[in-house]
UniProtKB/TrEMBL annotation, chains A, B:
Role according to the record: May play a role in DNA repair. It seems to be involved in an RecBC-independent recombinational process of DNA repair. It may act with RecF and RecO.
One Pfam family linked to the record: RecR_HhH
GO molecular function: DNA binding; zinc ion binding
Coiled-coil segments: none
Keywords recorded for this protein, A-Z: DNA damage, DNA recombination, DNA repair, Metal-binding, Zinc, Zinc-finger
Listed name of the protein: Recombination protein RecR
GO process terms (BP): DNA recombination; DNA repair
Database matches in SUPFAM superfamilies: Recombination protein RecR (SSF111304)
Record-stated family: Belongs to the RecR family.
């Protein structure tokens, strides 16, 4: 008794998804073939379509179906500001906060030497070129405040030190509505160190 | 700023996978497009191929690329025995145990009224027909010893009571190498109740 080859192929293929091991892959394959043919067909099609049509914006490196994305082409954005974020989801969060009207550069990752992700993998050569377009005056580093995000911000900061641009980092501190009693001490310490005059 | 439609489609499509919510779907889509184009292409292709070619065996209901699967066509199997399992993975485990040389019927699930899975969804009508082929003498119920697996075994047992076949259930008890000290009391109790003469 053998599993059909095409089923084995499907199970093996599903393992390329992050966080999916042999058992989940098998469960997923059974589910798709047994309970959700329509969803599976849609997935196969949208995956093939996305692979063919989605590329990286030549300016901001975000996912887009065009050469330069809608945001980068917009004339209502402030071209003197360039915000560096790790992932497209971070860009979306920034936009939802309605606090920023400049341009973006999406690293599509963060420095993580242990995972083999160095400066080249997060496209810092392209960022460097992007910064020197003659319009950008300030780089706003908005990578995460994780160890890797901080290291990335530090590295990018050093990289841009010699360029004629101001480099800033988004602020750390208590969240809006945050209470001292419930905040972790690291955040509180940073909030005190980075206190500002009012 | 908008996410490209094809990317949104892909994220939405990935949510049909079991256990994948909006955040994992987004992470998966980014991973596929950013880090594993080859794997994504393979997934799209093998999924499309599997959808087109994989069907259910007319005799045992297992996944196959043929009308009647290799195992059901084999003349070296004992056609008087029919083992009922929940999933293809269970059939593989039975085969790996090299303890059984009869035929199978794969329910592709278990009775679970709360999830809307009733007798029709686990193909009991087809099982009933399969049992009456004139060759089968004994039905071996090998559903899991979970609440749902037990309920399924009980239901199938009742269903076949009036037919001219013997219905058996695989044994419950201590696992091979199991120690009384470390086994749960439910299993130990069953092992005592189902003790047999030696």
């Amino acid at each position: 008794m053998k599993t059909p080859t095409s089923l084995e192929d499907l199970i093996e293929s599903l393992r390329c998804l992050p966080g999916v091991g042999p058992r989940s892959a098998q469960r997923m394959a059974y589910h798709l073939l047994q309970r959700d043919h329509a969803g599976a067909e849609r997935l196969a099609k949208s995956l093939a379509y996305a692979l063919e049509h989605i590329r990286h914006c030549e300016k901001c490196n975000n996912f887009t179906e065009e050469i330069v994305c809608e945001l980068c082409r917009s004339e209502r954005r402030d071209a003197t500001l360039l915000c560096v974020v790790e992932m497209p989801a971070d860009l979306l969060m920034m936009e939802q906060a309605h606090c920023y009207k400049g341009m973006y550069f999406v690293l599509m990752g963060r420095l993580s030497p242990l995972d083999g992700i160095g400066p080249r993998e997060i496209h810092l050569d392209r960022l460097l070129k992007r910064v020197q377009d003659g319009l950008v005056r300030e780089i706003v580093l908005a990578t995460n405040f994780t160890v890797e995000g901080e290291a990335t911000a530090h590295y990018v900061g050093e990289l841009l030190r010699s360029k004629e641009v101001k480099v800033t980092r988004i602020a750390r501190g208590l969240p809006v509505g945050g209470e001292l009693e419930h905040v972790d001490s690291g955040t509180l310490a940073q909030a005190v160190i980075e206190r500002r005059e009012i």
